[in-house]
Design brief:
2 copies of one chain form a homodimer. Chain A is α+β, with helices and mostly antiparallel strands. Helix content of chain A is about 55%, strand content about 15%. The structure holds a DNA duplex.
DNA sequence: TGAACATATGAATATCTGTTCATATGTTAG
DNA sequence: CTAACATATGAACAGATATTCATATGTTCA
């Protein structure tokens, strides 16, 4: 009865918008790099800047977007802000996407 | 040994671009509607126009994009062109995304 | 062949999105 | 308190993207 699959009949117009937004979060290279980096563990902004090769500003802007979507969270630690993935879902979605890309 | 997961060490810069492109395909409401409609079975363009509420032209343009990404395929049947999902991956990705959206 | 229908295409436009630059905020150490 | 550092933010700009409008292509049927 309590199956994990979604009942198609109750998918609203708004759900489709949310769904598009979710995938939009994964649709940019900088964001993908950020998420991929965070898959290996939490990192501060400076480290993310290094790993992505993007500007500190660009990274910060993108982190904000990802945080708003609750794909990542953060905590302060002194001067630094440490970011980490919000949950396993991100991991799963990325993995699945990568499986598809890799055929 | 032959696990389904992807070895992180062999993920290239190009893979990340492909991955972003894949998710980009799912990041627009019109395209999501198209794909969702096709999850229930193949449909001709006119039916897709009806289901999505978008213009015939808009639908046609988006179908082209989805086809180029090989997310959908089509066959001709008289005057009509019948579209259908290319494989189960699309189904799975959409399902997983929806599961996330629905919490 | 020509009319009616189904779909595709190209150019133009308006909107959205990501980056950059400059600067603000907040934190620690001296 | 101030200098040095870490991160965030806002405005401006450039490039990408989705839609529309007009029209082209292709198919069937009379």
């Amino acid at each position: 009865m309590a199956k994990k699959t979604v009942d198609k009949s109750i998918i609203t117009e708004e759900d489709l918008y949310d769904l598009a937004d979710l995938f939009k979060a994964f649709s940019d290279t900088t964001r993908i790099k950020l998420l991929y980096a965070l898959m290996e563990g939490e990192l501060c902004v400076a480290e993310l800047v290094e790993k992505t090769g993007a500007t500190q500003s660009a990274v910060s802007h993108q982190l904000r977007g990802l945080k708003q979507m609750d794909l990542i969270r953060c905590r302060k630690e002194g001067k630094q802000v440490i970011y980490f993935l919000a949950d396993d879902h991100v991991h799963t979605i990325l993995q699945m996407g990568m499986d598809h890309v890799k055929e």
